[in-house]
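Example A, followed by Example B.
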Amino acid sequence: MKSIIFFIVCAISSIITIAQSTVGITGIRDTSYNILNEYNKHLKNYPGIQIAKETSYPYVKEEKNIAYCKTPQRELKLDVFYPKEKSKIKRTAILFIHGGGWRSGNKSMHYPLLQELASLGYVCITPEYRLSTEALYPAGVHDIKTSIRWIRQHAKQYNIDVNKIVVAGHSAGGELAAFMGATNGMKQFEGEGCYQNFQVKPMQSLISMAH
């Protein structure tokens, strides 16, 4: 069964890669999908909705715009939210991927959620990844895989349990999160990005949650 699933994933990926067109590669990142635009779009039908506000917890540390790898297109960055308090118990890491149809969106969209989760004791990471106007599939997949390897590389620094890495996301980010779990340990989806010495092994724990 595992061999059949592996074959199907590889076959579909090969077909999609061959069928892709470079016409949409403009090098310009689409910023139309953002919290304010979504708020305005849904306000008429849901007049009671509010934009979640960021919370600055004194016991949560935030590190933003950390470069985790450099691609032919640009430098990729991520943000980390984690408890300041030292703990003898290693913490669970949550990698949260933003949505936007693979074309738009940005890593700052879910700051309030990640701040709350960090206040509960989790180490939260939200990465950039190359969108469809920057590079063809599976570039974004490779970028997220690289960010997972970055977590493993820096596990000691942030007191992370490498056997407890959760990958979650919103919309397209949820799809990417599910893809991480479905292709866990498949070398062809790892890409040639940074931290190759931290390739994910098939039996290593990687929990994916799509939303």
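Example B, a separate protein, is given below in the same form.
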Amino acid sequence: MKQSLALHLFFGRIMKEHSFFLEIGFTPKDRNYANQADSFRKSFDALLADAIALSDGVVCQSVLQSGEVVTPYTLQAERLSSYYTGVCIQTELTQSELCLSGDGMTSSPMLEQRVYCLNDRAIKLTNSLIQFKGNILSNVLACRMFTVNYPLLIDHIMREAKLYVSMLEKLQRRQDVNLENEAFEQESFWNRIMAEHSKFIRGLLDPTENDLFIAADNFGNEFDRLTKEALQAMDRTAPLKKVTADSLEATVKIRDFNTAGTQGLIGCKIKSIIIPLLGDHVLRESNHYLRLLNMFGKAL
């Protein structure tokens, strides 16, 4: 139950922001697609609101303190992104999350039933979003549609949505998680995600931001290497403990890079075409991965 709520607090927000990034990336010709993305965004707002209400006093404090739910910059990033785009973002959800407490009541039959229903609703909604993303990607690759979002980014956010569904389905089946196998899969997944974040940032920076461009490029190369090492660990041709330690060290560095980047975007110190909420979005994902790596490091 605590795992389910932690997933919703993290991934529910990620999904609503994916919908927002898609929404603002269409041309006027594809206004109907923008409207569909807006509808998904609002549906995930509602899902997140219910997850917040169920989580207070229940979810693990370590999750709330990790910076994966909200960061000190989330509220300002939302307000700026809303100002730039004209899209009304529910900042009340962020304010509610900032007030959440954890590690209280462990379970009750009624709460477990409500969380089960929320999981089921999230699976159905996210599967619909995956289908929508797939449709967009097919249209873009067939040159039937133009969007400012990279094809790789659309594929990237599809993979994140599929992970969310996969983890919820395991929880719904009450499936036991093998932490070592989970570490193999999560590290190969998130190292690839971190590499792609770096490449997206590199591609969205103004060409004059040479130092940031080089730093992002270096992170992309480093996490490409770590992705390969994690896959080798899955094949038992590399020690997982070393991969975890190396990934942890690299993720701390990219977390710091993402923090500085988000601060720079909010403070209008970086020339780019990066919406501020995307900076905070990738920062939260690096914080989430750090929490997982610390957990895996203690268990291995």
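On Example B: The chain is about 75% helix and 0% strand.
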